[in-house]
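My main concern about presentation is that the manuscript never shows what a single data entry looks like. Each protein is reduced to its one-letter sequence and a matching series of backbone shape codes. For the editor and my fellow referees, an illustration may be useful. For illustration, here is how one protein appears when written out as sequence plus structure tokens:
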Amino acid sequence: MKQTKKNCKKLMSSSLLMLSLLSILVTTSTPVTARVSAMKIALAQITVTGKVSDSRNTPLDGITITVKGTKTSVITDAKGVFTISVPDNATLVFSAVGFLTKEVAVKNNKLINVVLTEQVSSLSDVVVVGYGTQSKKDLTGAVSQIKATQLENENPRSVGDMLRGNDC
């Protein structure tokens, strides 16, 4: 008999709790619905695909595409194609060595094709030495130049002969 009373009390307690919650939901249903809709909009993910190429329309592989402000990223394949799942209001950052970084807003677009611009940097005089490269201004010692006409007109037996100017 005690067990039945205990179960009855639990059932009544649970019922009162459910009625209280139902009452709260009914009186605040509009704001809760609005908040849930806002959360769904904020979490809306879309799958974006596209192709990355250079100014000559050559597909670029190995380009990193990152969702700005996150750690989510992918890399283009050999055909320059990528696929990434992002929030519909995200910004994609395209980057690679030798190219200028480019940012593109997704704006609910499911197809984004990007043309990256090559990053041109001028090199000063670079001299190739036996163990690496050095800038011409930092080089100490003798410097020789070999011209293509020298190779065509002469028959040197070694690189040393070319540097000395010998016609062996």
